[in-house]
Amino acid sequence: MEDAEELLAAVVAWARQDERITALVQTGSHGRGDRIDRYSDLDLEIITPRWRELFADQSWLDRFGAVLLNVSFEDEDEDRPWPAPLLVVFTGGRKIDVTIAGEERLTDMIEHGLDELYQRGFRVHWDRTGLAAKLPAPTGETPKPTVPDLDEFTTVTEEFFFEATQVPIYLNRGELWVAKFRDNTMKEYLLQMLEWYGATDPERPRYTWYIGHHMDEWLPDEHWRRVHETFGRFDADDARRALDATVDLFADVGAEVAARLGFPWRDDLVDSVRRLLAEYRSHR
Question: Residue 19 sits in which domain range?
Fold first, then answer.
């Protein structure tokens, strides 16, 4: 794997000599200076008024090493006129996430305060005009956990249980791939409910990162143990076992989140879904 410091040095050297680059800022684990391991990627922001030019011709990436993959997952963000980050993997396996942004990226935070990403920590590696030096100092605080409103909570609950009613049908049909596909959707809703569980902890609301990162740290030990039971093999019997475990965990966590937020909880819905699962199991 490419050496992270050598790779960073190559990017900094390029930014210094390329007159188009206003600033080079590092965020993520290296920018914060914590949770760094041998696999940690580099999160870099190239600040330039000529961001369109740099995005259109990305041959400058070859200066840093042999590129294996370079992808960008475009998303809709009305507040961000520049493209989604480039996700670049070099042949040795090191990944860098590169945001190419206009100078407004920094001027907005100079005027209105740091966003959540920068607030957690950043390092300025190049500042041609002194613009980055005007950024406020980061506090290092983690983002405040977000909690759902009733509509969002209800939507996640109902869509989870909808998928739960469909998985056993496909298992009975022998459609294992389809059953797994729907189970993956259930896992997305389960993750959301687990995140809300962490965020609504009455003693210490937890920051739950994203897509399940560090879950063993922000979930209680018993819940983390139960998460292990929710994944089954590509086998109908084990998939049914995992489905039951997934439904049970979601129901327990969902009821607790509802109680904490003062939302109604549908015990009748849970009972009806469990009845259907038992009935479908008898059809085998």
Answer: 4-134
